[in-house]
Amino acid sequence: MNTFSTRSARKEDCETIVSLIRALARYEHLEDQCIITPQLLCDSLFCESPVCHSVLGVINDELAKEKPVAFALYFYNYSTFLGKKGLYLEDVFVLPEYRGRGYGKQLLRHLARIAKENDCGRFEWAVLDWNQPAINFYQKLGAQVLPDWRICRLTGERLDSFASSK
Q1: What is the pTM of this model?
Q2: CA dist 3 to 41, 105, 138, Å?
């Protein structure tokens, strides 16, 4: 019988995680923005001071072989209002053929436990406004979808231009 479990990513998982990130980019219609490589990811996850962390969701078969079917990537931020760090979920993704089995919920519960173990005051993430299935799923978990916040972003030439302006 196959079982689902979560575990922290290891260096040898970087190629697998990048393939899951690319699958997420396809799902979100953002493939043109996805330039990550296994080496870039490895450098971020496994450097002296990691800038992010990753968890894999895997199916374990009878022979104890793992099949990665989901991932989450997160980092810690800080809330000035709470005076505590928070866990920010950058991405979570379950391969489409494995959805509806509770794997996403187990992955998010795993991250909630990490947040509690690390005395985080918040566990936050963003969701695309068109992704109603994800919004419904998050609300069913008890998450509040904040209607009054918008993400602001500077990248590429706009970031360069602003950084070099007076």
Answers
A1: 0.92
A2: 27, 15, 23
**Taking every pair of C-alpha atoms in the chain, what is the biggest distance, in angstroms?**
63
Please give the C-alpha separations between residue 77 and each of 61, 86, 117, in angstroms, as whole numbers.
36, 5, 15
| Secondary structure (H, E, C), 14-56 | HHHHHHHHHHHHHHCCCHHHCCCCHHHHHHHHCCCCCCCEEEE
Which residues does the annotation mark as catalytic? 138
To the nearest 10 degrees (0 to 180), the angle between helices 14-27 and 38-45 is 110
How far apart CA 11 and CA 21 sit, in angstroms, is 16
Q: For the domain that residue 71 is a member of, what is the CATH number? A: 3.40.630.30
CA distance linking residue 81 with residue 89, whole number of Å: 19
pLDDT digits (tens, 9 = 90+) for 85-131: 999 999 999 999 999 999 999 999 999 999 999 999 999 999 999 99
Tell me how many domains the chain contains.
1
In sequence order, what are the beta bridge partners of 56?
7, 71
Q: Which domain holds residue 72?
A: 3-164
Helical residues (DSSP H) of the chain, grouped into ranges: 14-27, 38-45, 103-117, 132-141, 156-164
